[in-house]
Amino acid sequence: MTRVSIWGICSRKSTIIGRLYELGVFHPIERSGVERGKETEKTSSGHPLLERLRSQRGRVLRMIEELSWDSWKQLTDVFVENVRYNLSSDLEAMMDEVDRSLERIQSRLNRIREEGKSAQGDFQELRRANSILTHAHAFLEQESSIPRGDVAIWRISRQGQHAVATKINGDLDFLPGGHERPWFRYHSFELKDGSSFLVTSASPEVRPGLVAAVLDAQGTPWKLPFHYEGASLADASSRIRRLLRGLPARMRDHKTELRVFSSQWGANLAAVYMLLDERLEQLLMEVSAEENEEFFTLEGWIPENDLARTEAVLKEDLGDAVLLRSREARGDVDGPIPTALRNRALFRPFELFLKFLRVPDYNAYDPTTLIGVFFPFFAGCMIGDIGYGVLVLWLGWYLKQKRSEVPHDIGVILIFMAFWSVVWGALYGEVFGDIGHRVLQMEPIWVDRAHAVLPVMVFSIVLGTAHVLLGLFIGMVQGIRNRHRHLWMERAGTLLFILSLVSALTLLRLQLPSSFFSVPIVMLVFALTFLIWGGGVGGLVESLGTVGNIISYVRLAAIGLSSAMLAMVASMCVDIFGVSILGLFMAFSIHLLNFVLAIGGSGLHSARLHYVEFMGKFYENGTLAYKPFAKRRKIG
Prior knowledge:
The chain is an alpha+beta fold. α12 packs across α14 and α12 runs antiparallel to α20.
């Protein structure tokens, strides 16, 4: 990482900062009171367009949410650039264009929504009216033949219905008789929501007393929806039923219109949001720049590999309007130096493991490549089955096709695991357990781990020893390079201590003469010297803990053995129950369980071996991650 200072002419500030944004390699040192990506009161008051731009960006995002548009993954760079081309390059003019477009879109969206709400309201109102008229249908049909009858529907409680009926029937005896005797008939019902209704048919002489009795009983007249005011109840019932049959289609049409409107404008609004976000980032950088009457300055970092290209592009595009000066980074002078992870494309997905930790220190070793080598190797060793390896390969290939970064990286990691699972499966002679041996007469190239447990365990310890020694060696080199005496001496002492134990065990195994034991003794003396000098008593304890770290690699054999035994149990189900539905179901279920446990167990335990036993020997947390001033979107 290189420390850089950029001087530019104030009149060309927007152009210079825009070019830095496109290059996407400059990591700015934030000025006190200004944090990139957050608008403080100080920055808002420092530029007249800043608050308006922030507000407009929020408005666009709210409208995207109103449209329920969430197809961000389908947005392409080509589409965003086409939207950029159609907008003005001048910030104020662009914001005016966006405001006018938002007003038009909001107006049409409101109209579609109001029509949809109206249709939904009509549907609810008419459905309730239809329910009431359906309950009263038989009574209405019966009373429709009486020419002078006054038919009405009242909403009234059960107690009120009884009081009204008693009152009117009592009044009938006192009404004067004429050519036709006065009458009163009624029908009551209750809806599912608990509301009670009374349907009445009365002669004109009874009508005034009926209305008074209903009002006294706290009842209210029920009216037809406003569309049918003045129509008879019988006629309205048939018309409401016909309209109800057409309303669902009307509501579906409105939903379809809203969905089409969303798909038509959602992507455009999303592109506008990204462009506004970019302009806001650049505007904040303009505000954060130190300036005098003629010049402005920016302080920051650029990776060494990108420095020459950045200087060349700025010189070619802006000439004498910008000047870039650089010097080598010095932690004692410059403070925290940002760390950028730069790995080959083959191993870049394994950076996922470091996202669970703080970024490594700038002067520390980046373990991504070694994780990419050893993690799938250990995981494949634990799975150790050709059949399961093929399934892991299929799963990894499926996830690799995803456009999201995390699923894609997991897919690549699974493909690495699948390769080593197949390799180890061939060495162990396993295809879904012992099916390869039963059906294909397949024999292990190396050893059958289900029966030769001890050789596999010894091999796991050997792997663990090599892995831990590599971690100690990296820690020692890193300590020497960074002039951390305690670190490198402690790591060197632990390294010599482990080597002395390994050499002593080797000499005992080979039964060599005692004179050869002087070598491990000399290494042990140097080891104790380094440990005590570098870490004191703590160094001795740490070296003994490293022996425990090596022994923990036995899990490579243990997890693999349990997987192999469970696969054999699945085959035994077919032996016990025969080639039957039950036998095949049991075998399939156990294999499925074993497959899930194989992926989860091998992944978790292999990760633990790296986080604790391996990276614990050298990994140093940093304080600042490299975050260049660049586009934050990651789209196709």
